[in-house]
UniProtKB/TrEMBL annotation:
GO terms for biological process: phosphorelay signal transduction system; regulation of DNA-templated transcription. This is Putative ATPase/DNA-binding winged helix-turn-helix (WHTH) protein. Pfam families: HTH_77, Trans_reg_C. InterPro entries: HTH_77, OmpR/PhoB-type_DNA-bd, P-loop_NTPase, Sig_transdc_resp-reg_C-effctor, TPR-like_helical_dom_sf, WH-like_DNA-bd_sf. It comes from the Bacteria. One of its GO terms (molecular function) is DNA binding. Residues 21-123 bind DNA. Keywords: DNA-binding. Residues 21-123 form the OmpR/PhoB-type domain. The keyword tRNA-binding does not apply.
Length: 991
């Protein structure tokens, strides 16, 4: 049998009279060459070229068709090799075998290869001529709904969908209710309409509840003349000659029935493309999914302006809708943070933003933001023309909720207890029935598919899951209504208590960054669990209080490593204030220790912090807890150091050293040396300070477990290196100072620990940059210090950073500087009495002198000198004395300035502070030069310079060498005579 193929390849049109149709039947298959259709109870999609090969073989069933004939027929205009033919034949064989096996046969192959000749169709074939079909009525595409509002923030998605429609025939836009799926689909339609001569048809499936009715519903909209009991085959036949895009909207009520229907249409009507919108995917073959997320929202950051907020699509949409409700509305900088908060709390969901616009227009955006906890009652006035499910925010979620199984509803309700993200282990522990160990994956997969749970990639083996904030609020309401809230919250708290309890021994054994990556994402859930423990109904057995205290301590490694000291202070205070007695006195001691350190670092309650530490010290001694004793000694040392009680800090450091010598913690001896070094340095013993600080660095390099990089709440090696860098500068070892500074800056950056960075930058990096004349570096590091200290509530370092910024501005302004802002800033923090503030006061005195306010400058520097002597703050006393001499010299005096310069020289020499000596010698040289004599200045300068190592580019050494050149007969550089009170940045003497 070798029937002739239809020579006309053109597709019949509805208006032309169709010729008789030929069908080839073999086994359970029907092949319609004119329609390019192969069926076996349903259409089979094998591709056009595979179908051409099958048709050629079936038309000549029993005869050999050569490879050349098959290639010529299938690729008439393209040169291809035999491999292409083999691939297509394999596709045909695979499809026929697959579908025939479903029918219970498969003993004999359909297509045989004849070596050296070609292929032969081996099954019996029956050829039948069907009578010509009557012309179908012309198609009228169901009209698109009118959508008056323009989509905001979806241009990229629409462009991507338009491009994908050129490559894929089935696209599904998936997302939660109110996310804007229909809006995107309707916006896409005009972009691609030109590709579809028969138009774009829109079919709303939201009103259906029975999947069996879907074929009839499609036929009723697309081909009302079809009245068959099973309308799918005639509908497919009717669509076959069309070139059309079908938009199937709101598929979720009947999603289970849509996959086979869509597959049948796509297989039987090659000119039909389908765009679906649904809260879950259809699961059809060839489906490409486009997930639609909320519109972009601004980050939760301070200082947001209106212009910055309007860079985000959610804000643009909200502002547009508020303006439509209240003419003339424009976003201001004052309203920008509240609007950003509204957009974040509503997850950028367009429906929520549109519904929020009305109340915001009536009550103001700040009032709207404050009432968002009650969003489901508040957001109720949608467009009257909108679908019922889109007229209130609750209706949108009621619609999705109603489509869930009872088990899925129960799991979703319980997931509402989570704050932030969660993993499958948490789902298993909190949201599933006890013993139900297999359902977690199943339920979560279903909720993810239905766009109610968001799955995001995570660093571990399992994805991180979360609910959108609006869905979480809805789920919590349902959980409360179910009566399960307290029980589920209890399970939630128990899970995170167990999680952190298991992690406790790992904090000292595992690398800090690995532990933070694992447990930082759980912070919001830990906070929620603590809030429930404190705010829920307390059990009579006191279990809530015990859980709150245990969970507070278990969470403390996170707070310490993330420098969340304000939170640590608040949570420990809450735990200690609970009325229930402690079952374990050691737990009370540990909470007091953590509270003391939090209060000390944040400067919350200076006097109270001392009292806490004294209590800790007494309890620790009584209980024999050496670790808490060490913490208490260090805490008191820190407070006394800030208060300028330096002699007391030296005694505390020695007590700490004696206790640390017998302690198993290898970080304790290093900290003891650092405490000794810092105390001696500030008291003026620079050589002793350097010796102990270098010992601290050596001890800190002794191998320790990976998790001990933050022993005693900070990285002790970084802090010791930062202290040593300043000491080395004072000692004239500038090259070594620069090496140490680079080393600790690199380590601090890699560590990313805020407290460590703030202490290092505040006590060394910023001051040293100024001392070395690198104003740009001082400003750069000062800005980072300000940002970190503000973010983590470190009051002292925040003030310190603010003063640095003002001082840098004054330095750059030179004689035009206004020192008053710096003075006011310093006055605001003098109560803290930190010994390093004298260095800042010295800078202010210089600025006052440059501004011509010499009397005020002298008063300030005299006060600083007296205070330094009183507190034994010898470290910068030579420099304060020198600056006093410079101020007096500015008034034209000579005898007292020279005495002060020589006093500074002698004192700095006793300390080993070579850099202070050089400054005093330069001041003396300038004084002599003004008087027309050299005196001993050249010898002094030459001798001191010979003792320096490195630092040739620093301000001080350049100035000293310039004076030596002048005394040797050279020209004095411009500004040399003016000195530090007349030089601006870039001059030789800006110190």
């Amino acid at each position: 049998m070798s029937p002739s193929p239809d020579p006309s390849p053109s597709m019949p049109t509805p208006e032309a009279s169709a010729p008789d149709e030929v069908v080839y039947r073999f086994g359970s298959f029907n092949l319609y060459p004119a329609r390019q259709l192969l069926t076996a109870d349903r259409p089979i999609a094998i591709g056009g070229r595979a179908l051409d090969i099958l048709t050629a073989l079936v038309e000549r069933a029993g005869a050999v068709v050569t490879k050349e004939e098959l290639v010529s027929r299938t690729w008439p205009t393209t040169h291809v090799g035999e491999n292409n033919l083999r691939v297509q034949v394999a596709k045909v064989r695979q499809a026929l075998a697959l579908y025939e096996q479903e029918g219970g046969r498969g003993d004999q192959p359909h297509i045989l290869f004849v070596p050296g000749q070609g292929y032969r169709f081996a099954r019996p074939v029956h050829r039948q001529v069907l009578p010509a079909a009557q012309p179908a009525p012309p198609l009228v595409a169901p009209p698109l709904p009118q959508h008056l509002s323009r989509p905001v923030g979806r241009a990229d998605v629409i462009a991507a969908l338009a491009a994908r429609l050129g490559r894929s025939r089935l696209l599904t836009i998936v997302g939660p209710g109110g996310i804007g799926k229909t809006t995107v689909a309707l916006a896409l339609a005009p972009e691609v309409a030109g590709r579809y001569p028969d138009g774009v048809g829109f079919i709303d499936l939201s009103f259906l509840t029975d999947g069996a009715l879907v074929p009839a519903a499609l036929a009723a909209r697309l081909a009302p003349h079809i009245q068959a009991q099973d309308p799918l085959p005639p509908l497919v036949a009717y669509l076959r000659p069309r070139r059309m895009l079908l938009i199937l909207d709101s598929c979720e009520p009947v999603v289970g029935a849509l996959a086979p229907l869509v597959e049948a249409i796509l297989a039987g009507a090659p000119g039909i493309d389908i765009l679906a919108t649904s809260r879950e995917s259809l699961g059809a073959e060839g489906e490409v999914i486009q997930r639609l997320n909320g519109l972009a929202v601004p980050p939760a950051a301070g200082g947001l302006t209106a212009a910055q907020a309007l860079d985000h699509a959610a804000v643009q949409l909200f502002v547009d809708r508020v303006a439509a409700c209240r003419g003339g509305f424009e976003l201001t900088d004052a309203d920008a943070p509240a609007v950003a908060e509204i957009c974040r709390r509503l997850d950028g969901i367009p429906l929520g933003l549109e519904l929020a616009a009305g109340p915001a227009a009536a009550h103001g955006v700040a009032g709207m933001a404050a009432r968002l906890d009650d969003r489901f009652r508040l957001l109720v006035r949608g467009r009257r023309t909108a679908a019922v499910r889109h007229q209130t925010l609750r209706a949108a979620f009621d619609w999705s909720y109603a489509l869930l199984s009872p088990a899925e509803r129960r799991v979703l309700n319980r997931l509402g207890v989570f704050a932030g993200g969660f993993d499958l282990a948490a789902v298993q522990a909190v949201a599933l029935e006890e013993g139900d160990t297999t359902a977690a994956d199943l339920h979560i997969a279903g909720l993810v598919t239905k766009s109610l749970v968001v799955a995001a990639p995570a660093g571990g083996d399992q994805p991180r899951l979360r609910l959108l904030d609006t869905i979480r609020t809805y789920a919590r309401e349902q959980l409360a209504a179910s009566g399960e809230m307290d029980a589920v919250c209890r399970r939630h708290a128990a899970h995170y208590l167990a999680l952190l309890g298991a992690a406790a021994p790992q904090w000292e054994a595992q690398p800090a960054q690995e532990m933070l990556a694992r447990y930082t994402p759980e912070l919001d859930n830990i906070r929620h669990a603590l809030d429930w423990c404190h705010g829920g109904l307390f059990a009579e057995d006191g279990s809530n209080a015990a859980a709150a205290r245990t969970l507070t301590l278990a969470a403390s490694p996170l707070w310490v490593r993330l420098s969340l000291w304000m939170e640590a202070a608040q949570r420990t205070s809450q735990a200690l204030a609970l009325p229930q007695p402690f079952a374990d006195e050691r737990q009370q001691l540990q909470l007091l220790t953590l509270k003391g350190m939090a209060y000390t670092i944040t400067e919350m309650q200076g006097e109270e912090a001392v009292g806490i530490w004294e209590t800790v010290l007494a309890m620790a001694e009584r209980l024999g807890d050496d670790s808490c004793q060490l913490q208490a000694l260090m805490g008191i040392w820190m407070i006394y150091f800030d208060l300028g009680r330096l002699r007391d800090t030296l005694g505390l450091a020695r007590r700490f050293q004696a206790l640390a010598a017998a302690h198993p913690d290898r970080a304790a001896p290093a900290l003891a040396e650092r405490m000794m070094g810092a105390s001696l340095h500030i008291m003026g013993d620079q050589l002793g300070g350097a010796r102990h600080t270098e010992a601290a660095i050596r001890l800190s390099r002794v191998a320790a477990p990976p998790g001990q990089t933050l022993r005693f709440h900070a990285n002790q090696r970084v802090l010791a290196q930062s202290t040593l860098a300043g000491l080395l500068w004072l000692l004239g070892q500038i090259d070594r100072a620069e090496v140490e500074q680079r080393a600790y800056l690199e380590e601090a950056a890699a560590l990313g620990h805020a407290l460590t960075t703030c202490v290092a930058f505040g006590q060394s990096t910023c001051p040293l940059a100024l001392l070395m004349g690198d104003v740009s570096a001082a400003q750069r590091h000062g800005q980072l210090l300000l940002a970190l200290s503000e973010r983590h509530g470190m009051v002292m370092w925040r003030h310190w950073a603010g003063c640095f910024e003002l001082l840098i501005q004054a330095k750059r302004a030179g004689r035009q500087a206004d020192p008053e802002p710096v003075l006011r800033a310093l006055t605001a923090i003098t109560d803290l009495s930190h010994p390093r503030y004298n260095a800042l006061l010295r800078e202010v005195a210089l600025a006052l002198g440059r501004a011509g306010e010499t009397a005020k400058a002298l008063d300030l520097i005299t006060t600083s000198v007296e205070r330094s002597r009183r507190n034994e703050e010898g470290w910068c006393l030579p420099e304060l004395i020198r600056v006093r001499g410079e101020l007096l010299a500015q008034r034209g005096e000579r005898r007292e300035p020279e005495a002060l310069f020589r006093q500074a020289l002698e004192m700095a020499g006793e300390q080993g502070a070579l850099s202070w000596q050089l400054r005093a010698a330069v001041s003396l040289a300038r004084l002599h030069m003004r008087g027309g004599a050299m005196g001993d200045a050249p010898d002094l300068l030459a001798g001191l310079l010979a003792r320096f190592s490195g630092g040739e580019g620093t301000t001080d050494i350049r100035a000293a060498r310039a004076f030596l050149a002048h005394f040797g007969g050279g020209m004095a550089p411009a500004g040399l005579l003016a000195g530090p009170l007349g030089a601006a940045e870039g001059g030789l003497l800006t110190a």
